[in-house]
Amino acid sequence: MPPRTRTLRAATVAAVLALGTSLLASAPQAGAAQPEPVAVTDHCQGQCADILPPGENGNATLVEILGNKAFGTHPAHSDDQLDRYDGLVAGHTSLTDQKLTDFFNDASFGVAADQVESVTKPREDVTITRDKKSGVPHIKGTTRYGTEFGAGFAAGQDRLWLMDLFRHIGRGELTSFAGGALANQGLEQQFWPQAPYTEADLEAQVEWIRTTEGPHGEQAMADAQAYVDGINAYRVKSKNGRYFPGEYVLTGKIDSITNIGEIQPFKLTDLISIASVVGGQFGGGGGGEVQAALSLLAAQQKYGVEEGTRVWESFRQRNDPEAVLTVHDGTSFPYAGKPDQARGAALPDAGSVTPEPLIHDRTGSAGTGAKAPVKAPAALKPLQGMYDDGVIPEGSLPGTGGGAQKRGMSNALLVSGKHTASGNPIAVMGPQTGYFAPQLMMLQELQGPGISARGVSFAGVGMYIQMGRGQDYAWSATSAAQDITDTYAVELCEPDGSTPSKDSTHYRNDGACTPMEKLERTNSWKPTVADSTAKGSYRMQVWRTDYGIVTHRATVGGKPVAYTSLRTTYRHEADSIIGFQLFNDPAYITDAASFQQAASHIDYAFNWFYADSRTAAFYNSGMNPVRAAGVDPALPVKAEKAYEWQGYDPAANTTDYTPFAEHPQSSGQDYYISWNNRQAKDYATAAFGFGAVHRGDLLDDRVAELVDDGGVTRASLTRAMAEAAVTDLRGEQLLPELLKVLRSQPVTDPALNAVVQQLDSWRAAGSQRKETGPGSHTYTHADAVRIMDAWWPKLIEAEFRPGLGDGLYTALTANLATDESPAASHGPSGAHSGSAFQYGWWGFADKDLRQVLGQPVKGPLAKTYCGNGDLSTCRQALLATLKQAAAEPATAVYPGDDSCGAGEQWCTDAIVHRALGGITHKTIHWQNRPTYQQVVEFPSHR
């Protein structure tokens, strides 16, 4: 392939020459550009578009990294989708179908002859053609092996360093690979205990797919091997040609002068470890039953068992009748509900719960982050310490970082043809996976025997398109997070019959005192140019039982127990490969029904959406276990035969699963929306926060209005998404009720009345967090936004803490954080991550305020908390906190961080692409929007 970089200034080249001319090597020239022959009929006819910022190219040589650091230059196609993505903030208000490609890529199949940038043939049976505009690889194979080899080769070209990072994260070896920065220590300490495996465990998962999934399983593993072969082919070529990613030099893997060193070969088990990271973070669901039990105990302690349970259930909101639903036609799909008479619950004794220790035998900088910079060559000085804060900054990945909630990403808007201008369904949809440089996913087109699709795949597991479009259909997913993870209480014992303690490492299993299995990972590191963290090491240790991984110790009824976490997808991290294989097969996917059948082969908890020229459809996937009758899935349960999953086999971690028909699904509904909200009536939630107000309402209200008006177009549906993407949920959904309370009597303080009027003006203008004009970096209603950001946490505490009491309030906030505005730093992917308003007390506040106002409430809170139910007292509490918020300066509301100065409101919200390699990008306007997004409308069908 050709050098994919912009011209470097002479000063940069001179600096690099100090290290030796070998560093100037770049990728070999591809063959002469040739048009790609059309092999399939593209039924989208120019009406499919997509976007994935910042850009396709995620590899950078050392020269390119130095150029980026010194002069802000970027490798070709590493940032050419960023401005289009950012531009939709200002451009959506005047958007037309004709203007869509101003903000999206043309996602048609193939590359027009005059748009071919390069053609590479890593083998005779495959061609990788890249287009001029975005550099996306269009991979066309004449054999199945060649197609998949090409996919692996292209993945190496675009994401080699990223794939290497993630296979080490999945294996719990990040610090040994990339350095001992505290963020790296924290990241592997969060990921590895969720999916701790031995190499034999990983190999067994490969063999399971190959031997239990029939011909599809055999084909999947053959495809995966070809993909790995392609990655390794590029790995060798780039190493020998000295155009490998420069991060290998900076982390001490390869010598910049002699080229001595190695990029370790990839193998099939690496794909399992990468799949465990991707699936676990975006497709998991459930867990957290220990913390739920603690808040239930706090409620029972305050109110007594019966009333405390009623209060707790009103906050748990498993099946809230006011919650926004994806299937909104009233169809019921009962699952994981509260049993009439719970049995087998294993609530801990008060004060007995302790988390299971993970880290042992610390040495050196382990846990301290002490620095000991190495002596770096002069030319590399600008890059010294670039990973001192971690190769992946703390809290950047979904479900990581202090206080972060897990998962909860992505959205979808689909309208059936009956309500569109063309008569064909329209979809605007995509996953929110955070913002990274390079991105976790990569765009590609795959055309070969049995494969025909374009879209995205997570780097390292890209043998198939995971979300994208086929010849006459498109599909996408949102995280579903239904309950596929349970907590068991295993009774501890000692093999000699002595009295056990909470520290015992044996447990009762079918009557026998059985040893737990110890799994360990020892990591060590030393300072490099990239990471100055001093030499150190530690050992991670978890205990594995037949009921899962030990997470906590406690006593139940005075007896010591270990709480374990058991998820259905454990030991089956990559089984979903079968579903993805089917998504890519045009012979299998012929309509909505066949797509839903394919989606049922996805084991992780996802909501799948489909659109072709005739039908829009939905299916919820996941290995939903069949639980024993009477077991409450929201709480820990005793590890006894009577209460375990039906048909459970611990050796293979298999069980009975709910059948296809019991999963929420629909075809041809007037419209569908999903923003990680509830799927359907009676499909109980696995977590707190699915009540009367949810960010899904931002989509549902807008799409419902479009459908009522009729004549929906791709542009109008995209506008609805884009408007919701810059809207503050609190301003749109909660502020009207707050204002009613405040204005239930005249606000006599002139200054405070002016503040109330400011908030009302912001509400009337749409409650947006949007700048006055492109590049102004100042919000139109900046002061109202500042006041709301300062007021919300204060008003929630004033509304609920007095009535709940300190203990219960604290316990409930541990289940669900009170706020997740874009300015907050505790969201699912940390600060500057775009995704916002998924987790918060908006639903609690909405019901409580309507209760105090005397309005009708379905599924009310067990008590009214604001002012203890007295409107006047509630009003005084809100006014007092509003006055405090209005007086709080911007420098206190927005204290600043590594990206922004104190008081910089726009910047605090703004999206920062977290650098996973050596290339950084400019900050862009906040949008609560999918990272990868499609806009599709198929006018014809096969």
Task: Give the topology, please.
Blueprint: H1 10-17, E1 48-51, H2 62-71, H3 82-91, E2 105-106, E3 116-123, E4 126-131, E5 137-141, H4 144-170, H5 174-178, H6 182-191, H7 199-212, H8 214-241, H9 247-250, H10 268-282, H11 289-303, H12 305-316, E6 332-335, E7 354-355, E8 359-364, E9 411-415, E10 426-430, E11 436-437, E12 441-448, E13 451-458, E14 467-469, E15 473-479, E16 485-493, E17 506-509, E18 512-515, E19 517-525, E20 536-545, E21 548-556, E22 559-567, H13 577-583, H14 592-599, E23 606-612, E24 616-621, E25 637-638, E26 665-667, E27 671-674, E28 681-683, H15 696-709, H16 714-724, H17 729-742, H18 750-764, H19 782-815, H20 842-852, H21 871-887, H22 890-893, H23 905-909, E29 914-915, E30 933-936
Parallel strand pairs: 5-12, 6-28, 11-29, 16-25
Antiparallel strand pairs: 1-2, 1-30, 3-4, 4-5, 7-21, 8-20, 9-10, 9-27, 10-30, 12-13, 13-14, 14-15, 15-23, 16-17, 16-22, 17-18, 19-20, 20-21, 21-22, 23-24, 24-26
